[in-house]
Amino acid sequence: MKYSGIGGQAVMEGIMMKNQDKYAVAVRMPNQEITVEVSDYQGIIHNKKLRNMPILRGVFSFIESLALGIRSLMYSASFFEEESEEREKGGASMSEQEKADTPFSEEERARQKRREKRKEDAAMGGTVVLSVVMAVGIFMILPYCISVFFGRFVESELLLALLEGVVRLVIFIGYVAGISLMPDIRRVYMYHGAEHKCINCIEHGLDLTVENVRGSSKQHKRCGTSFLLFVMLISILFFMVIRVDNGVGRLALRIVLIPVIAGVSYEFIRIAGRSDNAVINLLSRPGLWLQNLTTREPDDSMIEVGIASVEAVFDWRSYVAEIRQEG
């Protein structure tokens, strides 16, 4: 396996693939056609030295992935919101020609687009902040509060830190398993499987065809599911070793150390994605096992969407030819 640098995410009835500063969102629309939107994403930090600093790059990557993921989800969902609105209005939506004939100047249209873009960016920013706050509350603060309750009966701080970590893992895995029961999420997980299969296909030197993708693995060591699991596991080690005497300090520590824990977790996932070392593969297994909950076997139509997304941002033919020459 050779590292390609391409990564992605499942969205509503589609897949987002990112390669360096370019990303594409391919969506299977209600009329069954595939639409592909290609855009540039420069990230939140433009200084290359700062972006490539170990630990820090993991923090930046997590925030950027969250922001880009939400943007891609909003884009994919827009197709189905429009279809729903048209049905509610009895199909009486304005055609492109009618829009063009409305008495607005080009300048007014441009201003309207800028206003809509600002609203979209503001909504996305608010969603990112809310997502982070909720994640911190559910996966960091709640397990700590539960451990404080059990502190009435357990005197060992080491045991309490371990108990807190176990509670955090149970909440995380329970959340992942619980949402997998929702029909819409199951379809997203199928697209997630298609995303992994497409990347595995080209990283193993195979032509990106439906048949080859179908036979590839739906598990990948660089998956965000694995990253989040390692955040949970590494947090256990951190909080068992780093201790503060008072309760307020312990709670503050759990919040302050989140970027460090995320950065360390990212470094491991980064190494795992570039290595076939036996020890690294062994340590990666828990994340791969958990991916059995967050990925499903896709159908061929989903694989076609994944292929369209890859081809929009990545020259897989040259990449595969290079692998074969090296072999």
Quick summary:
The protein is of the alpha+beta class and 327 residues long.
What order do the helices and strands come in, and which of them pair?
Blueprint: E1 7-11, E2 14-19, E3 22-28, E4 34-40, H1 48-51, H2 56-88, H3 96-101, H4 106-150, H5 157-179, H6 183-203, H7 210-214, H8 224-241, H9 247-256, H10 258-274, H11 278-294, H12 300-313, H13 316-326
Antiparallel strand pairs: 1-2, 2-3, 3-4
Helix pairs in contact: 2-4, 2-10, 4-5, 5-8, 6-12, 8-10, 8-11
Verbal overview:
The protein is built from 13 helices and four strands. It has 327 residues and is an alpha+beta fold.
Question: Which properties best describe this structure?
Answer:
alpha+beta, four-stranded antiparallel β-sheet, 13 helices, 4 strands, 8% strand, globular
- Uncertain segments are 91-100
| Count of distinct strands | 4
Tell me the fraction of residues in β-strands, as a range: 5-15%
Give the count of helical stretches: 13
Strand order of the main beta sheet, please?
1-2-3-4
Q: Give the mean pLDDT.
A: 87
Give the CA-based shape. globular
Structural class estimated from helices and strands: alpha+beta
Radius of gyration, in Å, reads 22 Å
Q: Helical proportion? A: 55-70%
The helix/strand series, from N terminus to C terminus, equals: EEEEHHHHHHHHHHHHH
Q: The biggest beta sheet, please?
A: 4 strands, antiparallel
Distance between the termini: 11 Å
